[in-house]
Amino acid sequence: MNGWPPERGVNSTAIHHLNNGRVVSVTHKAMSDGGWVTMHRDITELHTMQTELAHRAYHDPLTGLPNRNLLYQRLGQAFETLQPDGGFAVLCLDLDGFKAINDSMGHASGDKLLRQVANAAAWSMTFGAPWPMASSSSSTSRSSTSGCRRGNRFGQNG
Questions:
Q1: Is residue 152 part of a domain?
Q2: Over pLDDT 70: what percentage of the chain?
Q3: What whole-number distance in Å separates Cα of residue 29 and Cα of residue 105?
Q4: How far is the C-alpha of 115 from the C-alpha of 60, rounded, in Å?
Q5: Are 15 and 24 in contact (CB under 8 A)?
Q6: Do residues 120 and 126 touch, judged by C-beta distance below 8 A?
Q7: Half-sphere exposure of 39 (CA within 13 A, CB side)
Q8: Are 111 and 99 in contact (CB under 8 A)?
């Protein structure tokens, strides 16, 4: 049943995502005389706010990368679905000397560095290749991200 026509005597609500980006809630309310009342309500703003709040709950506001909450959720899912002969990997990055950068160059510089590292990690996980780093042509600095592959990273749904 796609919500129309409403089943006799049954109340129902359906959410429709329109091609123009709007989101509409359609509610069918059964009446005692056998008819019904249908109400269409534009809930685009509510839907947008809910989506944004859900994203904020699981992503770092500075880098946009998944946060610990999402990591723990995805680790739990990985362990629950782990087959006896299966496995998964977790990539951990540590920025040596980061405190010194924040202390000597300021938090704005530290934030900029974190965003660049986040972009490099996201690039590598998305494209399965080293991030094209414009500031360095050293093969050693570029090869450190070459082990990152797309697979099913914990920040993706599914």
A1: no
A2: 75
A3: 62
A4: 11
A5: yes
A6: no
A7: 8
A8: no
* Mean pLDDT, residues 134-150 taken together: 38
Q: Kindly report, residue by residue over 52-92, the tens digit of the pLDDT.
A: 999 999 999 998 888 899 989 999 999 999 998 888 888 77
Of 49-53, 56-60, 129-133, 146-150, the one with minimum mean pLDDT is: 146-150
Cis peptide leading into residue 84 (ω within 30°) = no
- Both tokens assigned to 138: 């050293």
**Count of structural domains, the chain:** 2
Question: Which residues are CB-neighbours of 29 under 8 A, at least 6 positions away?
Answer: 11, 36, 37, 38, 39
Measured CA angle at 45 (ends 16, 62), to 5 deg: 115
CA atoms within 13 A on the CB side of 18: 12
125: nearest Cα among 82, 89, 96? 89
Is-contact 110 97, C-beta < 8 A? Answer: no
Which DSSP state fits 66? Answer: B
Domain stops at, among 58, 74, 99? 58
Range of the domain at 2: 1-58
Q: Are strands 12-17 and 36-42 parallel, antiparallel or unpaired?
A: unpaired
